[in-house]
């Protein structure tokens, strides 16, 4: 079986936007015995399986999906990339 391409969209809050979920995780880590973490930002990951080859046109479509549906461009940044999976 060969490698299957998967398009991944990572969505994160913009740096200037407060991240209460990340702050909650950061506060919980020391109570669980973990130290040395100075910041936590929580985001979302979308994995898209697409038909056929992942072309520039497919990536452009995924970019538009991320802008229109998968993220809120006012408060979030996103990154589109391709991963190979077994």
Question: Which helices and strands appear, and what pairs or packs with what?
Answer:
Elements (H helix, E strand, L loop, with lengths): L3 E10 L6 H12 L12 E5 L7 H15 L5 E10 L1
Antiparallel strand pairs: 1-2, 1-3
Q: Taking Cα atoms only, what radius of gyration do you get, to the nearest Å?
A: 16 Å
Outline the biggest β-sheet: 3 strands, antiparallel
CATH architecture classification = 2-Layer Sandwich
Q: At the third CATH level, what is the topology name?
A: Mth169, Chain: A
Helix share bin: 25-40%
Enumerate how many helices there are, as a single number.
2
Give an overview in words:
The protein is of the alpha+beta class. The chain has one domain (4-85): Phosphoribosylformylglycinamidine synthase subunit PurS (Mth169, Chain: A). The chain contains 2 helices and 3 strands. The protein has a 3-stranded antiparallel β-sheet with strand order 2-1-3, with helices on one face. It is found in: Cytoplasm.
Provide a concise account of the structure shown.
The protein has 86 residues and is an alpha+beta fold. 31% of the residues lie in helices and 29% in strands.
